[in-house]
Every structure is written in C-alpha cells, then in structure tokens.
Amino acid sequence: MTTLKQIVGAALLDSLDQPHRLLAARRTAPPEFAGMWEFPGGKVEPGESHEQALHRELSEELGVKVRLGAELECPTSEGWPLNPSAAMRVWLGKVTEGTPAPLEDHDLLQWVELAGQEILALDWIPADLPIVQALIETTVGGRRATD
Ligand SMILES: Nc1nc2c([nH]c(=O)n2[C@H]2C[C@H](O)[C@@H](COP(=O)(O)OP(=O)(O)OP(=O)(O)O)O2)c(=O)[nH]1
C-alpha cells in the first residue's frame, strides 16, 4: 500500500527522439522552495492516475497539452524520494499544443541544454538533483561520453 504522498513531474523536452533541451520551472511557493527550479507537476488527486494528474497539472500550470513518453526510471516503486512523506514519479514529455507560460506556481520557465553545465548550475530543489542527473544520463549520457 502506498504510504507516501504521490507527486508527478514532467521532464518536458524539445524532442522525445533526440532531446537536447529541458523546460525547467522556477517555483514561487512555499517560501523554502521559492526561487528554486523544478519539474512542473504536482500532487495526484484521489481517483486520478499518475498520467491524468500530470496532464491536469501541465494544463493548469503551463497552459499546454503534452504527449508523454517513457517514465524516467526511478529508485523505488513509489518514485524519487522528495522528503519523508512524499515521492515523485517523472515522465518524459513533449508539448503538442500551446506555448508554455508560467500561469500558476511558477514565475519563470527556461529551456536549458541537457548537455553542458547550464542545467546543473540552476538552483534546483535539492531533492531534484538526482533526478536531473538521471535525466541527463538517460537523454544525453551516451553523447556526453564521446564529447
Ligand atoms: N511539482 C514538483 N514538486 C516538487 C518537485 N520537487 C519537490 O521536492 N517537489 C515537492 C514540492 C511540494 O512539496 C510537492 C509538490 O507539491 P505542489 O505544490 O507542486 O503540488 P500541487 O500543485 O498539487 O499543490 P497544491 O497547490 O494543490 O497544494 O513536491 C518537483 O520537481 N516538481
């Protein structure tokens, strides 16, 4: 039985086949996370699947429709641990309708290169750092090795 609060996040990429850039979102609240970068998303509501929750959150927060790709492989069945009471599962995705805008919960969106130092230089919510690392490995890891 799931005991942790379930959060879903999207790694929105410029392309699912040949990704080069990720859309990062800067949070406005709560105070301890304001100004930090994260994957857009939020809590799974009762009766929703994880994917349904993610589509709803992306519509509310960014005003976009997306195609979801694979789930980013995570260390536990409940996802990536965020804190003692919550875990997040993350799906790769691509915007199919609309232009992302910071409508709710964020004050800035930024497309960042997956390769290079720019992405790691962002002030991510600390719990997101292993997720960002895994995303880089999954997307451009092979390319990096031959850079
Ligand atoms: N969306 C999101 N939340 C994250 C990330 N990393 C991380 O620690 N969190 C935490 C922050 C919050 O405590 C929780 C998600 O809550 P939220 O505030 O985004 O969810 P929500 O929009 O459904 O919340 P609410 O306004 O309905 O209260 O997970 C991340 O990358 N994306």
From TrEMBL:
Cofactor: Mg(2+)
One Pfam family per UniProt: NUDIX
Domain Nudix hydrolase span(s) in chain numbering: 3-134
Keywords: DNA damage, DNA repair, DNA replication, Hydrolase, Magnesium, Metal-binding, Mutator protein
EC number of this enzyme: 3.6.1.55
Record-linked InterPro entries: MutT-like, Nudix_hydrolase, NUDIX_hydrolase-like_dom_sf, NUDIX_hydrolase_CS, NUDIX_hydrolase_dom
Transmembrane segments: none
Gene Ontology terms for molecular function: 8-oxo-7,8-dihydrodeoxyguanosine triphosphate pyrophosphatase activity
Catalytic activity: 8-oxo-dGTP + H2O = 8-oxo-dGMP + diphosphate + H(+)
Entry similarity comment: Belongs to the Nudix hydrolase family.
PANTHER family reported in the protein's UniProt record: 8-OXO-DGTP DIPHOSPHATASE (PTHR47707), NUDIX HYDROLASE FAMILY PROTEIN (PTHR47707:SF1)
Protein name: 8-oxo-dGTP diphosphatase
Species lineage: Bacteria, Bacillati, Actinomycetota, Actinomycetes, Micrococcales
